[in-house]
């Protein structure tokens, strides 16, 4: 049975002035890093600052280094970057297959690790990351931005308060038309629709049910579209949770852009549209005791709350939520889903203890970040 340890802090920045700013190196300067992570430092400046960049692209290195006024290191000089006294943490925004390698190197250098999801592409790699951070007394956080987002946390709270009765059925669709070439379509870089967007659906089902699945089943498929020569185009998944709860979702890189989930309980239901995106407003609908209410949450910066929370954890020596165990929880499920798709059989999961779940108290509101001028990258969507 897996076990997480440590005193946990789930929220930050609620009126308490930070003692200082934690210095971050952003590792990997792809579309998401440029479009969302780098601009977020302006909204997280209470306790976080950008001090270095790591990239293998000369054009990105030159232009972004000058724009942000920080040194830029090639991947072959990563250890040199980690040795800078001002680099206290890294934000890893690399291809999935590289998360573990760069996280472990950072931990061994005494640098805290905030890693994009999925935490890694195997359970063994996740455990190596967790172990390296524990042994070197540094924090590890999985970048689940929705653990701080109002609409999703309001849904969590509605379930906790019993507004839909006992939650029974979770369904979700997450899809878009992917633009090729893209690392999400390259197997050796950890590409695949389940790794990239299926992780959102898995994580949402877990935090809404507040439980871990005991058995999973998946179909993966592809059309004759030449974009999908290495990875699946789409997947359809069923997850069985304790006490008769079921989750089902469909994800695709070859369908119209949709990001929605629905949770049906014994006495009501809730829906969330644009549920997983980091841009645009989120729309919700709650039916409880025969009455339906609707609302929306305006676009906001979803990355700055991660930085604020993680920096507080570093400064206070506390364990973040979501931590490395939260990342591992999803990775072991996705690995089982790929095994199920390969064998055509359901896969049972070992018990997994996960006492800490996201709560409404973790919500942090920061305004939308400024639009960034992107350098040598393209959006993943067509």
TrEMBL record:
<dbReference type="InterPro" id="IPR036291">
    <property type="entry name" value="NAD(P)-bd_dom_sf"/>
</dbReference>
<feature type="domain" description="Gfo/Idh/MocA-like oxidoreductase N-terminal">
    <location>
        <begin position="23"/>
        <end position="143"/>
    </location>
</feature>
<dbReference type="InterPro" id="IPR000683">
    <property type="entry name" value="Gfo/Idh/MocA-like_OxRdtase_N"/>
</dbReference>
<protein>
    <submittedName>
        <fullName>Gfo/Idh/MocA family oxidoreductase</fullName>
    </submittedName>
</protein>
<keyword id="KW-0560">Oxidoreductase</keyword>
<dbReference type="Pfam" id="PF22725">
    <property type="entry name" value="GFO_IDH_MocA_C3"/>
</dbReference>
<feature type="domain" description="GFO/IDH/MocA-like oxidoreductase">
    <location>
        <begin position="154"/>
        <end position="270"/>
    </location>
</feature>
<dbReference type="InterPro" id="IPR055170">
    <property type="entry name" value="GFO_IDH_MocA-like_dom"/>
</dbReference>
<feature type="compositionally biased region" description="Basic and acidic residues">
    <location>
        <begin position="350"/>
        <end position="369"/>
    </location>
</feature>
<comment type="similarity">
    <text>Belongs to the Gfo/Idh/MocA family.</text>
</comment>
<dbReference type="InterPro" id="IPR008354">
    <property type="entry name" value="Glc-Fru_OxRdtase_bac"/>
</dbReference>
<dbReference type="Pfam" id="PF01408">
    <property type="entry name" value="GFO_IDH_MocA"/>
</dbReference>
<dbReference type="InterPro" id="IPR050984">
    <property type="entry name" value="Gfo/Idh/MocA_domain"/>
</dbReference>
<feature type="region of interest" description="Disordered">
    <location>
        <begin position="345"/>
        <end position="382"/>
    </location>
</feature>
């Amino acid at each position: 049975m897996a076990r997480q340890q440590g005193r946990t802090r789930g929220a930050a920045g609620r009126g308490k002035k930070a003692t200082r700013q934690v210095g971050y190196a952003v590792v990997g300067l792809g579309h998401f890093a440029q479009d969302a992570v780098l601009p977020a430092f302006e909204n997280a400046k209470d306790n976080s600052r950008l001090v270095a960049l790591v990239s293998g692209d000369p054009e990105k290195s030159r232009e972004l280094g000058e724009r942000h006024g920080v040194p830029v290191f090639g991947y072959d000089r990563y250890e040199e970057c980690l040795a800078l006294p001002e680099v206290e943490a890294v934000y890893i925004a690399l291809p999935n297959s590289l998360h573990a390698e760069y996280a472990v190197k950072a931990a061994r250098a005494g640098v805290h690790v905030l890693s994009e999801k999925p935490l890694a592409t195997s359970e063994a790699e996740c455990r190596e990351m967790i172990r390296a951070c524990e042994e070197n007394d540094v924090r590890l956080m999985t970048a689940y931005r929705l653990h701080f987002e109002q609409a999703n946390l309001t849904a969590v709270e509605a379930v906790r308060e019993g507004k839909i009765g006992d939650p029974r059925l979770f369904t979700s669709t997450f899809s878009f038309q992917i633009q090729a070439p893209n690392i999400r379509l390259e197997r050796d870089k950890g590409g695949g629709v389940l790794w990239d967007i299926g992780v959102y659906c898995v994580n949402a089902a877990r935090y809404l049910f507040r439980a871990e699945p005991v058995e999973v089943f998946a179909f993966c498929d592809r059309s004759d579209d030449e974009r999908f020569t290495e990875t699946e185009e789409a997947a359809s998944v069923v997850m069985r949770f304790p006490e008769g709860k079921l989750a089902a979702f469909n994800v695709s890189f070859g369908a119209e852009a949709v990001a929605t989930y629905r949770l049906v309980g014994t006495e009501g239901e809730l829906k969330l549209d644009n549920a997983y995106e980091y841009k645009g407003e989120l729309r919700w609908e709650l039916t409880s005791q025969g009455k339906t209410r609707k609302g929306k949450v305006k676009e906001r910066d979803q990355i700055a709350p991660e930085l604020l929370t993680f920096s507080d954890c570093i400064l206070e020596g506390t364990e973040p939520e979501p931590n490395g165990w939260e990342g591992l929880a999803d990775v072991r499920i996705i690995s089982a889903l790929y095994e199920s798709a390969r064998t055509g059989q359901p896969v049972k999961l070992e018990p997994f203890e996960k006492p800490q779940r996201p709560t409404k108290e973790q919500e942090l509101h920061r305004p939308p970040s400024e639009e960034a001028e992107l350098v040598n990258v393209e959006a993943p969507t067509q």
